[in-house]
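Hey team,

Filing this mostly as a record. A colleague (T.K.) asked me to run one chain through the structure pipeline before their review meeting, and I want the input and output archived in the tracker in case anyone asks later how it was produced. No errors, nothing strange. Just documentation.

Input sequence:
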Amino acid sequence: MNRTLIALLAALESFLAVAIGVGISLVPLSIMWAARLDLDIGWDVFWRASADIWLVGHGVDLTITLDPALAAAIALPGAELPFLVSIAPLSFALITILMGVRLGRKSLESGARFVGPVAAISTFGGLTVLIAISALQASAMPTMWMALSFPTAFFALGVFIGARGEVGHSGGRAERVQKRVVGWAGSLPQQVRIVGATALRGGVIVATSVIALSAVTLAILVIGNFSTILGLYEGLQGGGGGSLILTAAQLMFMPNFVIWVASWFIGTGFALGSGSLVSPVGTDLGLLPSLPVLGALPTADMAFGFLGLLVPIASAFVAALLLRPKLVHALGTGPQLRWIFATVVGIALVGGFLIGFMSWASGGAAGPGRLMDVGPNALRTGGIAAIEFLIAASLGMLASSRSDHREPREKTATASDSAQKIS
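Output structure:
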């Protein structure tokens, strides 16, 4: 295929990725602008709002300065001063990464080497610059160095993941770097390579299991408290357009909510404002943001809330139980206890880091005053998760070890019984 055509198609894919991301908020805002506001406000206001939302969704900090009359109406301490919004609806970044992965795979299939990825990333970066410039206004000012780099970095990460096979076979510096990394890894002792690979695999499995179970739990909570959520929608009286915008906002925050449920399972919980806490130990909500999905939150202490700790513990236990036979087989004969212990520690560190990183990404400042603290405490959540994974993975390795010792005895007993029958 012609390189120019490949570059044009890649640029079009980048444009679609940006358009989808910005359109998620722009479309419902435009519907409300046309249907509810009778076109009294300029459409550019909603464009800048959508641009800000898209940038914040990629981790860009936004400094907001409210009009004095609006700040007085909100009646929140600190609303009259400029405040920071740094909590990112993670669905935006996830969509950008997935679109990048899709484009990277297409580039790999076309055999275009770097033409497609370079054209795509360059186009995405250029569009990001235009969006960031168009979003500049006195009342909502994005941090420019973040706005110019973060969205493009997410997209480039997705492209690299999708085209990882192409990078390794395209020659040049990328191939030399890959060979050096592979050569360095190959020079390590065999036990170190085995332990490192098993620990990485186990940590990812544990963290993924906790997040998956948290997503299922969140779905059950939303379904079980649907009447409460519906009542909150009716109480807001936002009409069709307002409800559509609110629903879209909540959907974009769903990855954040899933991670908050995971922090609840870990035991540290999460905050919905300074001084509030939602955890198995207790619930102290205080004044909540007007989000109907928060109607699924527990409103009082749960007598058996500590049972939620079984989710991370069971995940690490089962992962270690399943990984130990292959680990022992790969290590072969010789002293294995220290390598098994190192694997358990590695699983705990990898799983704790992933949970802590996701907790950090899911929280931030959501408004003035007490809303400056929303989400889990990343350091505490990751640390507690690592301790829980360490204990549970140790038990899983120990349980598997006992089963290994029982198996030869059972086989010996079976063999002796067979011999007696034959004689």
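Quick notes for T.K.: The chain has 15 helices and seven strands. Residues 6 and 116 are 6 Å apart (CA to CA).
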